[in-house]
Every structure is written in C-alpha cells, then in structure tokens.
Design goal:
151 residues, alpha/beta, four-stranded mixed sheet, globular
C-alpha cells in the first residue's frame, strides 16, 4: 500500500528551478509549512510575485481547486496527484483516478489542465493519467478521510 506521508515528487530541471521545496509533502496537516513554499526564500503560497515562476505550493493550490464531482473533495487531498514537473512555463502532472473506469476522468483532467494554465507563468499544462500504482484510500489526507467518514 502507498504511504500517504511520502513526499510528492515535484521536480524542476535545470537552472530555472522554480522550487527548492521539492522534498515537502503535499499532504501536510493544516498549519504545517509543507507545500507552502515557506521552507525557503520563495514566497509562500498565494504570495506569488510578478514575473516569478510558480512555486510547488502555487501548483498544488491550483490543483486543490479541482473537485472530484462524485466525492466532492479536491484531487490533491484525495491523493490523486502523483508528480509535478515544471519545465520552463509548462506544468506536467502525473495523476490517477479513484478507479480506472471513473466516469468523471475526462472532466477531472480538463479542469486540472485549465486550473494550472490560469497561473501566471504557466503557458501550458500536460496531464498524464497513470494507473500504477493504483489509487487507494490510504493516499487521502486525514481531512479527506474525515469528510468521507473513513477513520
């Protein structure tokens, strides 16, 4: 089973690195500094400066606006986002669905792409659906489990 405490791999190749916080976890507890970009000198999430590349927290916040229409929980808290790669002005995301036959899959992919492309500094977003490893409820945050009544 997947360990929900493992860090979300977010990488930025080359000297144009957008985040030094690639070791933080996307599924941090409320109030924790992980996934906010505050572990380094970059602006915290929501404080993106004009012309600065988006941070890991900015990308994750954009994806938190994407709600699974069946479960009514965002895709980050559900643990659907496996990896984010920022290449120049292109955000590349590997994510999964709660089931391979999820009828909301196309909607979730399209909304994820649109949400990322709204960020300043992002001109394109590529969403790749991956089915391995398969999603399990273990990937959800505690808040998501609480909302679904999973203890």
């Amino acid at each position: 089973m997947s360990d929900p405490t493992l860090p979300l791999p977010v990488t930025t190749p080359g000297p144009e690195a957008a985040s030094c916080c690639s070791g933080s976890t996307a599924q941090a507890a409320p109030g924790a500094e992980a996934a906010t970009g505050s572990c380094c000198s970059q602006p915290a999430t929501g404080e993106m400066t004009q012309g600065a590349p988006p941070t890991e927290g900015d990308l994750l916040d954009a994806l938190r606006k994407v709600i699974d229409p069946e479960l009514m929980i965002n895709v980050v808290d559900l643990g659907l986002v496996y990896a984010i790669l920022l290449e120049g002005s292109t955000a590349k995301v590997e994510m999964t669905l709660t089931s391979p036959a999820c009828p909301a899959g196309p909607q979730i992919v399209q909304q994820s792409k649109q949400s990322l492309e709204r960020l300043p500094g992002i001109t394109a977003a590529e969403i790749k659906l991956v089915l391995s490893p398969p999603w399990t409820p273990d990937r959800m945050t505690d808040e998501a489990r609480d909302q679904l009544g999973i203890f």
